[in-house]
Specification:
By secondary structure, the chain is an alpha/beta fold. The chain has three domains: about 130 residues, Response regulator (Rossmann fold); about 170 residues, Rossmann fold (3-Layer(aba) Sandwich), CATH 3.40.50.300; about 70 residues, Homeodomain-like (Arc Repressor Mutant, subunit A). About 50% of the residues lie in helices and about 15% in strands. The protein contains 20 helices and 18 strands. Strand 13 and strand 14 form a beta hairpin. The protein is flat and about 90 Å long.
């Protein structure tokens, strides 16, 4: 268990905190000396510091600054009296994790220490991931699938001419992988140009990619370099390649074969030296079957395939992503949001995430905009997350059999399932469950008894 350092000049407070922490299985150390506190943090593996702001002749703020100099990542919880809350807020600006006011209750210590250490654990995972190469991709996660992607990116980046095809659902981070391949390659100092092939009609996309000569068409009043020329010696990222027009696919195939382009209205070929990275959320083999994508182009692009699984298939990454985005948006919106409750984290981990990492990021940003709480609980989550039900649990949509149904039975089944889920979310708290379901407590108690859910 974690070692927790208590720094307070009152022996009674130190002894009381030692007892509370020892009961939870932690290993407490205590001192009344600021100098000893700094020395212990520098010499021992300390997971958390409980620091009194009033240490007699020395300010706790000065001790906090000294601790942060020794270990910038150390978590410090400030202990303060009612009259020094302003100083506690100042401590938060310096880098304290949170503060607790005297006199405190044991339950408050249990909760804040548990939450702080869980937050520290997630931060360490993110930091370890960065050391393993995840920071090169600007992607966060610890799942085996993501580690395999890190490895693939590092390997293909060494070979600066290899064409890469990145596949995966929308929102999984295909553009981050493309950028990482470029950043880790010998081409890193050269341009990285990206374009969405599904965002422009054929004629505009052709002009964007290959450029045009003056007079090539009605509005072509000046020569324009295309993106292939602009990204020369660098990388070009063709996102949503499956949306590209078939006629333009023929031209792209020639570029891949000859490494030459010709501007619209031009009469000479231009040599280019560019790595092509393509991405799609479509199943290109199905598009080949339906004659919407050229098979020869597919094999030219698919030299080095990288597939990014959807978030629902790598749920180990969800806690790290939540911590990463919560830290980001808490700083951005200047809010003190420490983490997610176990119930909220369970709900987020079970959610299907059809929008993948992009949706998760948006949800955390929305929570940080709408709320300013230390601990994010289920009631702070969007309704689609805590209200989602697996299809096998609630028959909201089903075929009516020829023999018909008993409507009251179906309504009762749906009602029972929703009451049970809400009761589980709140940990069996009747008042909170009633609020979530917007029913009087007496009505809820009746339904709990009716469906035998009171236990």
């Amino acid at each position: 268990m974690e070692r927790i350092l208590i720094v307070d000049d009152e022996a009674f407070i130190r002894e009381n905190l030692e007892r509370i922490l020892a009961d939870d299985g932690y290993r407490p150390l205590s001192t009344d000396s600021p100098e000893d506190a700094v020395r212990l943090v520098s010499e021992e593996e300390i997971g958390l510091v409980l620091l009194d702001l009033n240490l007699g002749s020395q300010s706790g703020l000065d001790v906090l600054r000294a601790l942060k100099e020794v270990d910038p990542e150390i978590l410090v919880i400030i202990i303060t009296g009612y009259g020094t809350v302003e100083s506690a807020v100042e401590a938060l600006k310096i880098g304290a994790y949170d503060y607790i006011k005297k006199p405190f209750k044991a339950d408050a210590i249990h909760l804040i220490v548990k939450l702080a250490l869980e937050t520290q654990s997630l931060r360490r995972k993110v930091k370890r991931l960065s050391r393993d190469g995840g920071s090169d991709l600007n992607m966060v996660g610890v799942s085996p699938a993501l580690k395999q992607i890190f490895h693939q990116v590092r390997e293909v980046a060494k070979h600066e001419t290899a064409t890469v095809l990145i596949t995966g659902e929308s929102g999984t981070g295909k553009e981050l992988v493309a950028q990482a391949i470029h950043n880790l390659s010998p081409r890193a100092e050269r341009p990285f140009v990206e374009i969405n092939c599904g965002s422009l009609p054929f004629n505009l996309l052709e002009s964007e990619l290959f450029g045009h000569e003056r007079g090539a068409f009605t509005d072509a009043k000046n020569r324009k370099l295309g993106l292939f020329e602009e990204s020369d010696s660098g990388s070009i990222f063709l996102d949503e390649i499956g949306e590209m027009d078939m006629n333009l696919q023929v031209k792209l195939l020639r570029v891949l074969e000859d490494r030459k382009i010709r501007r619209l209205g031009g009469n000479r070929n231009i040599d280019i030296n560019v790595r092509i990275i393509a991405a799609t959320n479509a199943e290109l083999k199905d598009a080949i079957e339906s004659k919407e994508f050229r098979e020869d182009l597919y094999y030219r692009l698919n030299v080095f395939p990288i597939h990014i699984p959807p978030l629902r298939d790598r749920r180990d990454d969800i806690p790290c992503l939540l911590e990463h985005f919560l830290l980001q948006f808490s700083r951005e919106f200047n809010k003190r949001m420490a983490g997610f409750s176990k119930e909220a984290l369970d709900l987020m981990s079970r959610y299907h995430w059809p929008g993948n990492v992009r949706e998760l990021r948006n949800v955390v940003e929305r929570i940080c905009i709408m709320h300013n709480v230390d601990l994010i609980k289920p009631e702070h989550l969007p309704r689609e997350i805590w209200g989602e039900e697996p299809q096998s649990e609630v028959p909201f949509s089903f075929e009516i059999p020829p023999e018909g149904i008993v409507l009251d039975d179906v309504v009762g089944l749906v009602e029972k399932n929703l009451v049970e889920k809400a009761f589980r979310i709140t940990g069996g708290n009747v008042a909170k469950t009633a609020r979530i379901l917007n029913v009087p407590r007496g009505t809820l108690r009746y339904k709990l008894e009716k469906y035998d859910l009171s236990g």
